[in-house]
Amino acid sequence: MKKNMWLSLTLSALLLASAGCGNKPEEGSPSNGSGGDTDKKSYSIAISQYVEHPSLDATREGIMAALKDGGITEGDNLELDYSNAQGDPTNNLSIGQKLKDTKADLVIAIATPSALTVKDNVTEKPVLFAAVTDPLDAKLVSNLEKPGGNVSGASDTNPEATKQLMKFVSTHFPNVKKSRHHY
Prior knowledge:
183 residues; alpha/beta; 5-stranded parallel β-sheet; disordered N terminus
């Protein structure tokens, strides 16, 4: 339930950020009133994804579906710059450096490695992260309620699921001891 709430909040923030960052056509362009739609905005979004994986791909597809639900579609009023590092840290760094000078209105980073690299490189544009388990521990933000700066997003951790798992383990495996080892 909380995961769905966070996902909805992130997608809402994405739509709001996109709406605020849209570009109206320049004077003299075909849609400036010379027979075109004068209120049509265009949007530019860059997405950095660390690796192809069903859950990360579903995150990206969910973002695109939310944009479409908001009337923002690639090829119509959305220019999309999608990059996938294929799990390679060198590719990830190159993508982050490329995005430093992006003309995109918004940058979305999917997975912790992409989010960290984008945060380090994109300082003048809004950045949203998704599919990040612990944004506090990763130092993406210092506060989940008020992240501040240009970086925000949603954690994919479900606190209720963690509590349920611990209850299950303590009920069915009473001899499990707390470990001092951190892996």
